[in-house]
Amino acid sequence: MIHIAGKLSEKRKERGITQEELASFMGVSKASVSKWETGVSHS
User: Fold this and answer.
1) Rounded to two decimals, what is the model's pTM?
2) Which residues form the HTH cro/C1-type domain (predicted)?
């Protein structure tokens, strides 16, 4: 099983991108990215 939350955070940090920058690029809120990375939400 792939752990999306951990991978998302890991890859974002490897690229030096903030949660806010990723959220803006994806057209979602920073809170959504934070929830994805912590595993609180996956939708």
Assistant:
1) 0.79
2) 8-39
